[in-house]
UniProtKB/TrEMBL annotation:
Cross-referenced SUPFAM superfamilies: P-loop containing nucleoside triphosphate hydrolases (SSF52540)
Compartments where located: Cell membrane
Record GO terms (molecular function): ATP binding; ATP hydrolysis activity; transmembrane transporter activity
Broad class of the protein's primary localization: membrane
Keywords: ATP-binding, Nucleotide-binding, Transport
Bilayer topology term: Peripheral membrane protein
Domain called ABC transporter: residue spans: 2-217
Coiled-coil residues: none
GO cellular component: plasma membrane
Organism listed in the record: Gracilibacillus halotolerans
Protein name: Putative ABC transport system ATP-binding protein
Amino acid sequence: MFLLKDIHYKDILHIPYLEIKSGEITCLFGESGSGKSTLLRMLNNMITPDKGEIRYQNQSISEYIPMELRQEVVMLGQEPIVFDGTVRDNLLKGLEFSGKPEVDDSSLLALMNELKLHKKLDEDASKLSGGEKQRVAFGRVLLMGAKVYLLDEPTSALDEETENSIMDFVTTEIKKKKKTAIMVTHSKYVAKEYSDTIIYMNEIATTPNNKVGTGHE
Ligand SMILES: Nc1ncnc2c1ncn2[C@@H]1O[C@H](COP(=O)(O)OP(=O)(O)OP(=O)(O)O)[C@@H](O)[C@H]1O
């Protein structure tokens, strides 16, 4: 689904060659500062490499209209974005931005239940805890029905039990709907339990602190 060739970005990341498969859940694993978020942001053209080519579905990513690409390859960033308004407003925001029809309250409540978000739809989203905000942002992204989900530490603010329960739900949904996910995680357990492929940054990339082929663990 993605093919990267000889990518250079500042002195942060150099990736000689990388393929990411369609229909899989791929985890990016590596030490802090190894360029995981940078790589993720390249995949929906939020960052453009200085050199090299990224292909998405056999076409250079630079040939896509960025806004259209980002609706198909949707990003859930490390810091959850919360808009002014209620939990409902926040869940529906992605659909609103992409011009898609709204979803009724019962579907929103069913999604919230799966995300272990036991809050009212009319609740002020700014009053939610960090972990709750993260799940509202996750819900918003899931509702968008994208082809590819770029998930940057989507469960970092959650306790282990909630994290596992949400990962169970999300990965089942992604597989059922034949979507693709590329996820950054610091959890070895999450990477091993929920991914089809683990990409170790120290094996695919060179950074100032890092050489290709140094192996992992
Ligand atoms: N726009 C930028 N300009 C300059 N340096 C940047 C920029 N974005 C990221 N960096 C640097 O690039 C390196 C990689 O950052 P990145 O956020 O991709 O790492 P990461 O592996 O996701 O880290 P973490 O696990 O801590 O989130 C870091 O040293 C960071 O400071």
